[in-house]
Amino acid sequence: MYAQPQARQSANFVPDYEQHRPSPSQEPVPIGRPPSQYSAYPQHRQSQYNQYDDGPYDGDGDDFYQSQSQYDQPFAARSVATQSVRAPSPPAGPILDHSHLRPGNQAALLSHERTLELYRANAKKTQDPDLQFEFAVFMIDASKTMPIPAQTAGNVMDVEKAVAKRDDLVHEAMALLKRLADRGHMPAQYFLADCYANGIGTHKSRQDFDRAFPLFVLAAKHGHPDASYRAGTCCENGWGCRRESAKAIQFYKKAAAAGHPGALYRLGIAELNGELGLSKSPKEGVKYLKRSAEHATAEFPHALHELALLHERGVDNVLFVDYEYAAELLAQAAELGYAPSAYRLGECYEYGKMGCPQDPALSIHYYNIAAQQSHRDACFALTAWYLVGSPGVLPQSDTEAYLWALKAAEAGLVKAMYAVGYFLEVGIGTEPSMQQAIQWYKRAAEQGDKRAAQRLKGPQNTAMVAPGGPGSVLHRNELNGSGDLSLAGGGKGAKDKDCVVM
């Protein structure tokens, strides 16, 4: 089943390992300490929709924003992201009056509310739809950053006022976006659809594809590549419309013609696997993937990764095996922040795979990129590195090993659950707690981990009574690869990959 690509944040940095060395007198600070919150993607609803009318605006008694005529000139296609979106800058001439700003000690900066009021006053006066659209986007952005105080017994009214103020701002922005969308303003149509799809300005902040899909279609008709791609995903998955693969292909091809990397990638995968009603055609699939890779962005780096995998194993009569080029493609995707590519490169530089030299610094660097985005295998790989450290690159730290194992375990990695249980049982990087250890062993055993089940057998199991002990050895290779935590000495990689458990 094709997984809808999600937007990813770039995490391209080389950590200063020595700077992050844990101090005995304070809580240790790891390389990119695992965040406490995880991203949650809301589930999409399936429902029918009422088609929007793409006719001219009827001027329904709005005396605030003067009515606009239907626009005949096509708008330049541009991507409007869901996080923080800015329309093109307004034409020459200041949109805000900065005459109140004075040099020296008397200088005064605009407050947030004053900025909003001045922006609103200028938006009222102008008939430029682009400026009105920019103001609407500004209000949506402002609503996301509005401070909402933490609720206590004594400030309930203050919290309610702050929430109401934020909701009013969103309501005003959505009303303006609707007017512009009804008048045929393509960026407003797409941005409004994107708001509905992300639960902005909707009932109880729920995704509303009933209203999002027809607006994606309208913007797609006006030549908006992102809108065509999003309409294709709706048709493919039945979001706000019936599931129709043929229509999805039409929208994807319309977006692909404009060089949209997401649409090109989806068509490439469909051709490779024979999805969406298409017959298998590896040759055509590779063509789409190559075009997508040429247009790859931080939001759509997927084709780079897929092409790397194809070059790693080769495709009969289509692609030859080329490890060096595969590693180059993975590096490009990793630098765009794509976690699976970064993790794969981390493995390559750790074990010398695909022609890459064994390089601890590069291995840790790429694992870090992936781990910062909660890639659970990368988190557990950092656990293994921290257990033994790397001279001149990474200081050994049992505490960090435990924290990254905990991060991976909470993300659902079974071998990490067993490792956390073991760390808690023995007291590696954390205070010993048999009660918590048993809980993690149970979670791992429930998902089929035989070692966890063995350690749960009770006092009759001598390993459970006195695990570890002075001179016991943790094999890093086994921890990182197969997920085993061995207490015996020797073994593969024992010379430089073992960690003595004291």
TrEMBL record:
Bias kind Low complexity: ranges: 64-73
Keywords for this protein: Repeat
Region annotation Disordered: where it falls in the sequence: 1-97
Signal peptide per UniProt: none
Biased composition (Polar residues): 1-12, 36-51
Protein name as it appears in the record: Uncharacterized protein
Naturally occurring in which organism (per UniProt): Ganoderma sinense ZZ0214-1
Lineage: Eukaryota, Fungi, Dikarya, Basidiomycota, Agaricomycotina
